[in-house]
Write the structure tokens for this entry.
Amino acid sequence: MRLSRRQAYGAAGQTLDCSDGVSAISSRRYKCSEPLESGGGRASGGGGEQRKPLSFVVAFAREAGAFLAAANRAASAGRTGTALLAAERPALSVRRTCRGYAGRATPPDPDRASALRSSYQSQRDTEKADRYFVYGWRTPYGFEIPPYAVPPNTMDLYTNRVDALDSAWQPTSGTAASSLRVTVGGHAVRLSPTGAFVLGRRACGKSVVATDRAGGRTGLRLRACRRRS
């Protein structure tokens, strides 16, 4: 018998509907848009080639989905942790103008950092409780006979470092938010009450650094300017 264009023959003779999106991650051999011949639980392609049943691909996709979801949870925690550390440093932006550069710098905002910290800690706790070790083992050894030593979980190392930096910053958050200094090539720049500043073409190629009162820094290097003919 020939199967419909929306179905393929399974290993146990059952038909599998591919409308659930599983076909999107299967190989091109198992496209559900192509009719397949049934034969002893296997699909036979042109030239007598034997293909694995679609049920095998479905089972693999379902098992892999849990690991992909775990990787996404871990990556989200790491991304939010990175945003938290960035919020604990001065904000600095610079753009080109016809006469040079216009920029703005502001000290860290403890309230914004607190909101990010709450989100990060929730995501971190969920990720650390995950039973799928997608970024490495969470035990000092592998489950084999005999057991063997394994490197630490990469994401655990990262979130532990985020926690350490965040804990060190919190007692200084009030001081960090109190004032800010901007330098270009080591020379101080005048700031407006909103943190705005203007630079001439002489700043081309130099480093702009914003430093808060607690010593936190954010810096960038300006692009070199073309020489006027």
User: Anything to note?
Assistant: Helices lie at 54-87, 110-128, 154-169, 173-176. DSSP finds four helices and 14 strands in the chain.
